[in-house]
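Quick one from the shared queue. A colleague (R.T.) flagged Transposase as missing a structural entry in our internal table.

Convert sequence to structure tokens.
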Amino acid sequence: MAQFVTGGTDDVFAPGHIGELTQVIPPELVDAVLDESRARERRLRSLPSRVEVYFVLALGLYGHLGTGLVWGKLVAGLTAKVPQPSEKALRDLRRRVGVAPFKRLFDVLAGPLAQPSTPGVRYRRWRTVAFDGCGSLNVPDHERNRSWLGRTERRHGPAGYPRLMLMTLCETGTRGLIPAVFGSASKGETDYAHDLVGHLTPDMLLLADRAFDSNDLLADIAAQGAQFLIRATSTRRPPVLALLPDGSYLTRIGGLALRVIEAEIHSRTADGRDIGGTYRLLTTLSDHRTDPADHLVRLYHERWEIEITYLALRHTLLKGRVLRSKDPVGLNQEMWGLLTLYQALRSVMVTAVETVPGCDPDRAGFTAALEAARDTVVSLIGTTAASGPSDRPDLVGHIGARVLHALLPERRMRLSARIVKCGTSRYNIWNRDERSRVTTPVTAIEITVHPPALPSAQDPTRALSGRWGQVCRLLAANSNQAMHTRDIARHLGLPTSGRPLSSLTAQLCYWARNDRLIRTAPSTYKITLPDTLTPPPSA
């Protein structure tokens, strides 16, 4: 990286730095993205565009300070004669440069950070990634922001601030960002997820929560060649095509051949509590010999690493504060600057940890890296080039040294209480599973894989209940011949017109889309049932 110029007309570029992180985001890169987005100044100004890029990044680094004080941090360690702009001049500078350079800068830095041999970043030959949404980013309550984001409705009325929905695809081992999108919360996480699927590659294994098990999204993920392990909603009942020795089974959903794992997980805590729940996981990893069911259930726990990503962004970097900008353009610029800054910090942390053999990146503390980065802005540590050609670049640096000095202990098993200290929050009063109100160590985790309950000849109604069971028994009683919707309704004692028929038609269509029924003609269906449900031929 070039040294800062401390004399002559080039003094205006002296504030163009962000401490040691300038080695990750060098001036040459900033100039390139400014040229590419046509945002560079046409004449030499007292506040060039390059300086504005670093200034917006510094706004994210010092989110608790006003713009004037942030500028003071950038110039505090400089000996050059630099301008002292007003806050209005700094605002005008932000408007002049716009959003495109920051979006492009994030695109350059985004992507997996760890080497293939780094501990904790891969499952077998796949790099584990996860995506999820963060809908708790508050923005200033200004009419221009409300026109874009709208009002957030809560149980007790609209929220005090409009909220921004952030959706990212994260490398779970390092918590680095691969892509990111954001916008109005009214669009929904599933819609934003479709925008991220194109960044999946065949060497990735996607972990996702039960909000992302729609047939279209599963098909899009599979089309990218990536593997996935996604929790299914409790209402999904995939058909059992083949039972595997480890208790999982093969199925077919939306044209995809998948494997289903149904498991009961119980966590026993040090205070004697037993907290548990049922998980139904969908995966493309169909071989039970190479990928046992209990191994995949434990791997799914890595999905929570993306929540640590949002913890660092929302609470460590922003300290829960409302964003600065009062218009959509400013919000876009501010968000891409925050994401770029976050990715730069993560890259420095991962580089430092990889110098320690066998060290897992999740032991690197984000708070230690952030405070060290702030110190280098004022002291100018790491902002100038090496003094001689024989000097080797320091892969660790000041930030990395602080991170390695304050490595976190090995990951402990513990149960965190889901509670918000707010009178209007539902988590303030809901505690259905009777979790502890404080973080409690976990002494043991018990995983029990439950094979599906298959129907038996002695009691064919045991596993088939409700409307689905009635339809199954009806088709079995008719030797599984295709039947029209009206004939099914008549045999079930339902009206053959009006809303009851429409409701039955919708159910049959839904089961057909999920490969539980076979549609042989318009409004005509049949089903493939186990032999135990098919009536024996008459003598």
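Residues 1-9, 385-392, 456-463, 529-539 have pLDDT under 50 and may be disordered.
Residues 328-353 form the longest helix (26 residues).
Added to the table.
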